[in-house]
Design brief:
By secondary structure, the chain is an all-alpha fold. It has one domain (5-179): Up-down Bundle (Four Helix Bundle (Hemerythrin (Met), subunit A)), CATH 1.20.120.80. 85% of the residues lie in helices and 0% in strands. The protein contains six helices and no strands. The protein is elongated.
Length: 181
């Protein structure tokens, strides 16, 4: 199993909490279908699709970087982690633009339960992403070492696993908020 056992306990716990969030969202949607449908129509699929593309691209580069680092190519591997970090920064910028667009249009958390869930769930996800970016900075520093020890590889794997959690959570949020009809 890649990484340390502690990261897996955290990932599964976090997935359980988000699973509850997703269940609450679907339940509330079933109670207010018309409200959620109307609010859903205001969602800009482009923002969600760009964020999905950024996270999937970042995850691809974290995998490629980790595989390269396992092979001993620290310079190339560290650059791939840096690309993942840039994808995360692109996500933050795009989310800022999306939040600004929603707020400028008068769609704030106080308008209705859809927007409350939208801002709370995407905000919590954004916090996870920012934590993941801190992890990527740590991974980048480890990856730049001239020689990686087994412990370094486990730490890199743990960081990659966390980044994939962020990715997975977004994919579900994207489906619930932007695609679900």
């Amino acid at each position: 199993m890649p990484g340390e056992i502690g990261i897996w306990v955290f990932i599964f716990g976090d997935m359980l909490v988000f699973g509850l969030f997703f269940g609450v969202f679907v339940y509330e949607r079933s109670r207010s279908v018309e409200l959620f449908e109307h609010a859903h129509e205001t969602m800009d699929l482009t923002f969600g699709a760009v964020n999905t593309l950024l996270l999937l691209t970042g995850s691809m580069f974290v995998v490629l970087g980790l595989n390269t680092l396992r092979g001993g190519a620290s310079r190339t591997g560290s650059r791939m982690i840096l690309v993942t970090l840039l994808c995360g920064a692109g996500f933050v910028l795009n989310k800022y633009l999306e939040y600004s667009d929603k707020i400028d249009a008068g769609h704030t958390p106080s308008v209705n339960s859809f927007y409350m869930y939208y801002f709370v769930f995407t905000g919590i996800h954004l916090l996870h992403l920012l934590i993941g970016m801190i992890g990527l900075v740590i991974m980048y520093r480890i990856a730049r070492k001239p020689v990686l020890e087994a412990r370094d590889i486990r730490n890199l794997e743990a960081g990659a696993c966390y980044w994939h959690l962020v990715d997975l959570l977004w994919i579900v949020l994207f489906a619930l908020l932007y695609l679900m009809r």
